[in-house]
Amino acid sequence: MRNSGIAAIKPFLFFGGQKISKHLPYFRGNGLEPESKALFRLVYESFFTVKDAIIPVLDLHSGFGTVDNVWWPYAFTKVPCPDISLYQKIEKHLKHHCGHIHFQYGPQSETYTTHGDLWDKLYDQYRDYHKDSRNWNSKLLPLTLEVGTWSDIKEDPFKLFRKRGIFNPASFNKIETVGRYRGFLRDFVRLGLTKPKDWEGNFVYHKKDN
Q1: Do the beta carbons of residue 73 and residue 109 sit within 8 Å?
Q2: Which Gene3D superfamilies would you find in this protein's record (predicted)?
Q3: Domain boundaries, given as residue ranges, for the chain
Q4: Which of 139, 145, 147 shows the shortest CA–CA distance to 89?
Q5: Coil, strand or helix: which one is 107?
Q6: Helix, strand, or coil here: 157?
Q7: Which residues pair with 59 in a beta bridge?
């Protein structure tokens, strides 16, 4: 989706969002789509007033290429987001403590820049909502897991020419593909059990196994 209303700085041509026609992919729209409004309402009602918490939220979708990406804000600009140091600590935790070393971590804009990213808008709205709050330490941390689905091209080269095939794993190994991410999703959920103090200073959070 490209309909949050945020305009990107030097967006990726066409794929970064277009206003040519609603009948073409990546249309930026004229405002939030109903499902986007529902997502914003859910996040606002569920998380905006939660105190003393790390609040990770995840967009999980398939995409181009053979590399799995874990992205954080921003998508609209290459300027680092205010929580870059915390995101980098989470990256180290997921890679070195949890063993998720086969992902490419970083802001989405390192891969490509887009208009209208929903996580960018929610992230900035959350920060703006609490900019005058005294001693507010909770962090809303949007992340995107983009699953590269081209690893099976050798077995199914014609998928590149199918509308659904170009973004999705082949049907013959879909269950196997999805199963590879269970461990990452488990450890992502566990991030929500941590507190802001667990990530203070140069400390990288490591939860001891019982």
Answers
A1: no
A2: Zn peptidases (3.40.630.10)
A3: 34-199
A4: 139
A5: strand
A6: helix
A7: 144
- CA 71 to CA 186: how far, in whole Å? 17
Listed as own residue / partner, the contacts of 97-105 with beta carbons closer than 8 Å and 24 or more positions apart are: 97/204, 97/205, 97/206, 98/183, 98/184, 98/187, 99/183, 100/183, 100/184, 100/187, 102/68, 103/68, 103/69, 103/70, 103/145, 103/184, 104/67, 104/68, 104/69, 104/70, 105/69, 105/70, 105/71
User: What is the helix, strand, coil percentage profile of the chain, to 5?
Assistant: 35, 15, 50
Residue listed under structure tokens 């080269």: 157
- Whole-number Cα distances in Å, 80 to 74, 86, 181: 7, 12, 27
| CA–CA distances in Å: residue 170 to residues 111, 159, 203 | 24, 8, 41
Q: Name the residue type at position 103.
A: F
Is the Cβ–Cβ distance between 204 and 92 less than 8 Å?
A: yes
Q: What is the Cα–Cα distance from 149 to 144, expressed in whole angstroms? A: 15
Cα 44 from Cα 126, distance rounded (Å): 8
Contact 180, 62 (CB under 8 A): no
- The pTM of the full predicted model, rounded to 2 decimals, is 0.85
